[in-house]
Amino acid sequence: AVIMSAAPGLQALIEAMRSVYGEPGGQRAMHRRGYCAVGFFAPHPDIARIVDTPLLRDGPVPATVRFSVGGEADASEKSRSLRGMAVRLHGRPQDCDLVLISEPAFYAATPVSFLGYLQARVPDPATGRPDPRRLAAHDQAFPEAARHAARLAAHPAPASYATTPYFSNHALLFTDSGGKTRAVRLLVEPVAGVQYLSPWQEQRLPDAFLEGEMDERLLRGPIRFRLLAQLQGRDDPADDPSAEWQGAGKVPLGMLLISALADDDCDAMVFTPTRLPPGIAPGDDPILRARAEIYALASASRRR
Ligand code: HEM
């Protein structure tokens, strides 16, 4: 039903993704390179004071976490591109997904901006590479894309999936135990600290090292992340994931622990950023709202 009702705009997005990142086959249209790990989320004892939902309140919840590399499927893991963290909290009766990236803001404010971003990256048949003039024209028309490129260029790639922060970019509406609703953004902070590749590592590491690095790291014990809610500051928009927030403080939500790599490849799992429990609602954000339908449409061919 979702596929039948998809607006032509969504089809154009899916086609643009294929033109830029190739036919997905049985894999993801974006963030293709990745793998799953397992662990659990342990809520902060006071979590209901910021968000009151049984799923997060009632003790540890098992979690599946997919780590991924954004951008081209064959890009080096040393490249200064996005890393993804997709979390499924296996609650009863329902699940909840958090779909996050390693930068505090997104490269598009609206689906139209996202489509333009992709279309500017379709390889020119003459050169096999994107046309630099089209890239520049897109950055001119949609300055959030240029701001994103500058953020990525400002630091080397994460040295590990365990040493980068992750961000929801979107605002979510949290309702607390007193019935008050606030806009927050999710932050995931690595307990190991933030660490990007050293110049030596940028030169010497193989192009694919992240999974092996995590495997080795897990031999020393679980990997831990702090989950926090960033409160909305006065000038922070709740409907624009391309804007960085100043914020008005952070509230701890709990701890996400990764204990092992998953046995299977989780290719059949579809993480959806609007799969949220009662007490958490998507804000009025055109990208977040579009993502639900886009992910359903884009994953239709790989679901088993
Ligand atoms: C209009 C905007 C966007 C479009 C069209 C889009 C599209 C997609 C698609 C088609 C997939 C593959 C889905 C699947 O097969 O399961 C994907 C994966 C992903 N996206 Fe987006 N995306 C958008 C915005 C965002 C934003 C704002 C974030 C984070 C802040 C994000 C983070 C991710 C991550 C982490 C994955 C990998 C999920 C996984 O491991 O299964 N995306 N995206």
How does this model look, in words?
- This protein has 304 residues and is of the alpha+beta class.
- The chain has one domain (2-299): Catalase HpII,  Chain A, domain 1 (Beta Barrel).
- The protein has nine helices and nine strands.
- It has a nine-stranded antiparallel β-sheet.
- β5 (166-175) and β6 (181-190) form a beta hairpin.
- It starts with a helix and ends in a 5-residue tail after the last helix.
- Bound molecules: protoporphyrin IX containing FE.
- Protoporphyrin IX containing FE is lined by residues 13, 28-31, 34, 66, 68, 84, 86, 99-101, 106, 108, 111, 114, 168-169, 241, 270-271, 287, 290-291, 294-295, 298-299.
Calculate Rg over CA atoms: 19 Å
Main beta sheet: 9 strands, antiparallel
Q: Helical amount among residues, as a percent range?
A: 25-40%
CATH topology name, in short, is: Catalase HpII,  Chain A, domain 1
The fraction of residues assigned to DSSP E strands is 25-35%
3D shape: globular
Number of helical segments with 4 or more residues: 9
Instruction: Give the total of beta strands.
Output: 9
CATH class: Mainly Beta
Mean pLDDT: 94
The ligands found in this model are:
protoporphyrin IX containing FE
Oligomer: single chain
